[in-house]
Amino acid sequence: MATSSGHLGEQRFPLEERRIALDSGVTLSVKSRGEGPPVVLLHGFPQNSHTWRKHLPMLANAGFRAIAPDMRGYGASDKPKSVSDYAPPRLVDDVSALVRSLGYEKVHLVGHDWGAVVAFYVAALRPDVVDRLVILNGPHPDAYTRALLKSQAQRKRSWYVFAFQLPFLPERVLALKGTLPRLFRLSGPGVFSDDEIDTYTHAIRQPGAARAMVNYYRASARYRGRLPIIKRPTLVLWGEKDVALGTGLLDGLDRYVESFDVQRFPDASHWLPEEKPDEVHSAIVRFLRPS
């Protein structure tokens, strides 16, 4: 259920939806609310901008311009066909191009899951467009690679990443009627309503969508770039019951991020934006408004 703050944001700041053609070569569908300092929110797999449905009005009511794109391959955005179209540098280009298209020099950047991975890439490779960085249950790319090499437990958790390297089959399985309900309900009953699951299921069954989502994983596995240390102030929010991403991914984060704080949620799973919307919102606003 949306919070009272969310309802106020919906009343004061109507939802704006538009498609924006970027000079990175794709057109993205973008939702936004509010006025004030810009906050770009990047969703993860297998979702889309609907992830932030509660957060857009809350951030708007808190005095921010909240902006949530469907990333390339997702939702109503373009879905290029090639694996190389989803290489990390292309995803970074999308974010920096979106910032320019919206008329900003830099934004606060928030990411969950794959959106968090992309946010890490942007902060490392294009720090000029990032003011502050917020990460929700998404690993730093180099930390994740290191964990796959050194941690048997994380390799077991990441079985799907290896399975996604297979041709054709993963996208077919993803588009099956029961796949997403089983995935979302790993966090327990009540986090996602049937209507919300139907929204994501409908999106993933659009032409080219499932393949695009899997191609993020395929392109990432082929990418060999190492990232410079991130120097933007960073907040990491982590649900400790995440079945796919262990808390060990937080160990040694100071190798990759110069200045960061971690807030753990012991009773939350991977789907932190949906499970703890009020707590996540409060943490983000406190961080984006340093005293």
UniProtKB/TrEMBL annotation:
The residues covered by the AB hydrolase-1 domain are: 37-277
- Tell me which domain of life the UniProt entry assigns to the organism this sequence originates from: Bacteria
Q: What InterPro entries does its record include?
A: AB_hydrolase_1 (IPR000073), AB_hydrolase_fold (IPR029058), Epox_hydrolase-like (IPR000639)
Keywords from the named record: Hydrolase
Q: Which residues form a coiled coil?
A: none
| NAD listed as a keyword | no
This protein is called what? Alpha/beta fold hydrolase
